[in-house]
Design goal:
By secondary structure, this protein is α+β, with helices and mostly antiparallel strands. The protein is about 35% helix and about 35% strand. The model has no long low-confidence stretch (mean pLDDT about 95). This is DUF2653 family protein.
């Protein structure tokens, strides 16, 4: 299964909204890929910025897969990749 960039953003928004007990609409996400740093995300919640690393993105994807698709996946099954935009392959 492949998750699009929009689905990854949704996963992070839902995860952060639940974690910080705020409405999903108050969470903004920008996915980032840098060759030397890898995958990350800049997240703004009620005006405060947070930086998520790849492990945090995989955690959000795991929760998203469980709640939206009723599938339990593990970090080792998630591969993040990027060309024109980011995506996640779930094996």
């Amino acid at each position: 299964m492949r998750l699009s960039m929009d689905q990854i953003v949704n996963a992070v928004c839902l995860n952060m909204a639940e974690r910080y007990e705020v409405p999903v609409t108050s969470v903004e996400v920008e996915l980032v890929y840098e060759e030397d740093q890898g995958f990350s995300a800049e997240v703004w919640i009620q005006g405060r910025q947070r930086i998520l690393i790849e492990a945090n993105l995989k955690e959000a994807i795991m929760r998203y897969m469980l709640t939206e698709y009723d599938q339990r996946v593990y970090p080792s099954q998630i591969t993040l990749d990027v060309e024109d935009e980011m995506w996640a392959d779930i094996s």
